[in-house]
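Q: Hi! Curious about what Polysaccharide export protein N-terminal domain-containing protein looks like structurally. Here's the sequence.
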Amino acid sequence: MPRFLVFLVLTLVLLSTSCISTKKLSYLQEDKASIDSIVEVHRLNKPYRIQIGDLLSIRVKALDQDIVGMFNPIDEGNANATGEERMYYDGFSVDEHGNIRVPTLGEVNVMGYTVEEIREQIEERLLSEYFKQEANIFVTVKLAGIRYTTIGEIGAGSNVLYKERVTIMEAIANAGGISDVGNREDVKILRQYPHGEEVHHIDLTNLDAVKSEYYYIQPNDLIIVDPLPQKSLGSGTTGLESFRTIATVVSLLSTSILLFTRL
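A: Let's find out. The predicted structure is below.
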């Protein structure tokens, strides 16, 4: 009987420390004390500023499209390319000096500017150097998708979402989601800045994550999801898996002890 009690206590202790609780697996959990509160999602008020390596889509339109055709690059050698491939060939990549090369206009510095500021800059140059107001030119400047990379306990790889704003939840879902042994409480974001790279942390199990300034990802973000201790222990993610593992270990130990005591 004492042996049975020892086995039972040992099993319960190991189960409580080895299996992964639903609290660690659930996203954006509400605080029980404020479950009726209204959650205000704080969107980033600061517009994104272009950095080295970004890819821009720039198009110029006018009443007479023929007169602006030279400003709209079309790589006829890759006419069958679609989506990201098309943007690779036709987009404007920001070089190490923060410049892009626009047909006829030449090099345009875009480093640190917003897409709206770049649009105004290009439009102003076109009106002063090539067209008159009567041409009614219309310039659009957009980021050619938000590119980001995921590694760790998440679908690893490079991804592109063709939206102006992307939340970290959308980015993770697009990458295939976080595995059962991924640490949702401390997701790391490696973000590029003009002065270098910084690592930021966000707890995706807490509803307050939507208020974080890192809830919306930026181009070239690296999202890192570390494993929980249960992965290295190999004890299973559910109580049943953990019980089977523990039962097997205890059974082997008991058998070994009985064999040694009989010698």
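A: A fun detail: The chain has three domains: 2-19+235-262, 23-46+145-230, 55-143.
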